[in-house]
Amino acid sequence: MTPSYYIGRGLCRFFLFLLGGYKGVGADNIPKEGPVLLMPNHVSYLDPPAAGSCCSRQVYFMAKAELFKIPVLGKLIYSVGAFPVTRGTSDVGAIKHAFRLLKEGRMVNIFPEGRRSKDGLLGEPRRGALMVAIKSDAVLIPTAIKGTDKCLSTLNKGLHRTKTTVTYGKPLKRDDLEGLDSHEACRILGERWTEAMEELMKN
């Protein structure tokens, strides 16, 4: 864990504490080393720091390219390991960077839905994210984030005090997808992710 990430995570934890507190569940499902792909739902701007604040390993995030153009914020998120992705396109550079991090044994966060849910409901996972999951050697961790949509979302303007809970699920099964065509493999993995997320969101 880099010093800048350690400090940033501490600040995020303090911020979440001020907003009502936070709780991490199931962190023992995350391997202590080796490549890991966190696959959370996405309902708020607070989801990336929440996903990283509730586990002990450093998390590298894909973040929309526009954020890196904002003075101060762009340099800040870059310093803690975020890297840009151009939404709405097949950003080959971002995908290659994610694979490099995973090959180095890092933990990478990718939102399968691609963007924030406007109604708070779980969206359909996108093919690009599922292909990264299938082609990588990473452990796939479905991750349910609850509470951030009430703290700060597209539906609620301003900040609101609500406790945030991040639940890291058991790894998704993937070894039986080898040999299937990409469309079928993505369909099956997408269904597994959705089913796991729906179960995690109940808790």
Write the layout of secondary structure elements.
Layout lengths: L2 H16 L3 E4 L10 E5 L6 H7 L5 E6 L8 H7 L3 E3 L6 H12 L3 E3 L17 H9 L3 E8 L1 H4 L12 E5 L13 H21 L1
Parallel strand pairs: 1-7, 2-5, 2-6, 3-4, 3-5
Antiparallel strand pairs: 6-7
How many distinct domains?
1
The helix-and-strand class reads: alpha/beta
CATH class term: Alpha Beta
Number of helical elements: 7
Read across the widest sheet, the strand sequence of neighbours is: 1-7-6-2-5-3-4
Question: What's the helix-strand series?
Answer: HEEHEHEHEHEHEH
Report mean pLDDT, rounded to a whole number: 84
Beta strands, count: 7
Question: How large, in whole angstroms, is the Cα Rg?
Answer: 16 Å
Structure, described:
This protein is an alpha/beta fold. The chain has a single domain (3-202), classed as Glycerol-3-phosphate (1)-acyltransferase (3-Layer(aba) Sandwich), CATH 3.40.1130.10. It is 37% helix and 17% strand. The protein has helices spanning 3-18, 47-53, 73-79, 92-103, 127-135, 148-151, 182-202, and strands spanning 22-25, 36-40, 59-64, 83-85, 107-109, 139-146, 164-168. It has a seven-stranded mixed β-sheet, with helices on both faces. Helix 3 (73-79) links the parallel strand 3 and strand 4. Helix 1 packs across helix 2 and helix 5 packs across helix 7. The longest helix has 21 residues, at 182-202. The relative contact order is 0.21. The mean pLDDT is 84.
